[in-house]
Amino acid sequence: MIDHHDILNSFRNELASHLARFTPPPVEPLPVSVWIAASLLQKAIRRGRADLAIAAAATLAVNDPDRLWRRLGGIAFEDIGLADPCTVGLVSAVLAGKRVRVDLGGEWRVASRLVQRLCNAPKCRATDDLLMATETMPSLANQRRAFADLTHDQLRRVILGTGNLDERALALIFLAGTDARPNPHFRPRRGEPALAFDVLDELGVAPTMIEISREGYRRTREALCLLLPLLAGEPEDDAPAFADDPLPPESMAGPVPGWALDAYTREGKTALRRLLGTQAGLATWTRRHLPPGQRLPFLARVAFHAEGGLLVNRRRTALSDQLRRINEEEASGVPPEAMREAMALMREGLPILNAIRSEIMEGQTHA
User: Fold this and answer.
1) Residue 77: which residues within 8 A CB-CB, separation 6 or more?
2) Whether the predicted model's global pTM rises above the 0.85 cut
3) Residue 321 domain-assigned?
4) Partner of 41 for a Cys bridge, out of 56, 139, 254, 273, CB 3.0 to 4.6 A?
5) Residues 222 and 291 reside in one and the same domain
């Protein structure tokens, strides 16, 4: 029987061997909030921009180290995933606490090496695409209500059954429990995480993948950690290909690229709100098609798909491409053709949005 601690220790030993010949960069924080730094860290990793990711990590290491480790854990499962499980394992193995990282050479030494590793790793967002689909796909509305009332055994049978992947993912999330990290899309349900990982074992998922994900879930309670081994157990008929997403031209907003200002930052949300008040094509389209309460969340979603969620060295298979399309189009809340039109308008309007972002950050500099 494979021991959980042996697997984690093997990753820690591998990381120690990398760190033995690693000189960490200087800690040079940026003059930005921890929210902008966290967004910059994740999006810079997605784009393979180690210079920006290290600066963002330094900002968090100085101002909010707990946020740094939470974000690195989330990034590993959300943006690396199936493309490089070893990198996910290295990150998961140091989430247990500061003592583990001190024993490996110190917080910054470990963090900066892992940030570089995450930047250089191939990327895959299939876990997050699947999670977003389970949260928002209209076709799953009945299951999102009903699964909260099913017994553990009933959910187990859904997961082990031959139903579609979205339903099995939803059942797995409810089996692990939706009460520890409240989610507005799911009714609270007390679950049993140990049973959820036992079911993944029943599916024949590799033990190392299960233990990596079990540790990630233990430390973060992120549903992404459940979905990675589920996806790992899915058959894929084609060999992965790797390619860069087309990235729009970059424009600075103060000390950071405009793409760092997303809807989870105050400045990013303000920029989207101002864009909505302009005569830009997407703003006009949104005002015409959506009621006021849906406009800003919709703009945030479109901006993510057209800019913030883009990857270099993306792992592509028929399944991952399908999950991406479902998340971008079928789970968007508007007809797929409307979403495609909105994304095209967002790409056209990015220079306007970036000018607004720059103005907001310039105003902060002179405040």
Assistant:
1) 88, 127, 213, 216, 220, 222, 224, 225, 228
2) yes
3) yes
4) 56
5) no
